[in-house]
Amino acid sequence: MATIGPFEVGVLGLLAFIFGLDYIWVTPLGIWRPVVAGTITGIILGDPITGLIVGSLLEFVFAGLFTIGGGTVPEAATGTIASTVLAIALGLKPEAAVPLAIPIAVLTMNLEIVVRSFDAVFTHWADGEIERGNYGMIPLINIIGAVPWGLSRAIPIWAFVGLLAVNPEAVKAAIEAIQVVQIGPWTIRFWDAMAVAGAVLPALGAA
């Protein structure tokens, strides 16, 4: 288990921002891929092996998901960072943390839809500069227009990891509260079930 502080909150949010930019640039480096994002997150939290395991499992979960045209898909990097943080900070099995990537990835996907609409402002700005013959402004507008994309990734991570930093006991209590769930005559060990789901998801994928 790792202690989450302001440094980790800031750096992980910045990483999510960078991963977001890498995802949309014309020549991405591929550092947003889960196996890379998980490993880097693990290094920051002092447990690169767990980060590598979580990232490797999620690489299969998010295989084949990529934005084409105007389509949006669950955002792999933020989901990977969040799952890796949970696994390391709370001592969860890597397999149990894997399914938790999906809700964060879907949340970020919906933020991306908002960003796509907002970025129309930069398109109109660029059109105006072209009409005035200020072609040198186009690269700058392109760079500024990418900032909201990075923030759509960074803000969920800052909020999520920040919650762990500010009140880790509450998060741990929530995790322990659902350790065993009673549904009628059935007793379900939630995190064991999540571990099974996490082992199956890489074979099925998130699509």
Automatic annotation (TrEMBL):
Keyword Transmembrane helix among record annotations: yes
GO cellular component, one term: plasma membrane
Annotated transmembrane regions: 7-25
Keyword Transmembrane helix: yes
GO biological process, one term: phosphoenolpyruvate-dependent sugar phosphotransferase system
Main location: membrane
Record PROSITE patterns: PTS_EIIC_TYPE_4
Alphabetical UniProt keywords: Cell membrane, Membrane, Phosphotransferase system, Sugar transport, Transmembrane, Transmembrane helix, Transport
Coiled coil start-end: none
Record's bilayer topology term: Multi-pass membrane protein
InterPro entries: GatZ_KbaZ_carbometab, PTS_IIC_man
Pfam families the UniProt entry points to: EII-Sor
Localisation per UniProt entry: Cell membrane
Name of the featured protein: PTS sugar transporter subunit IIC
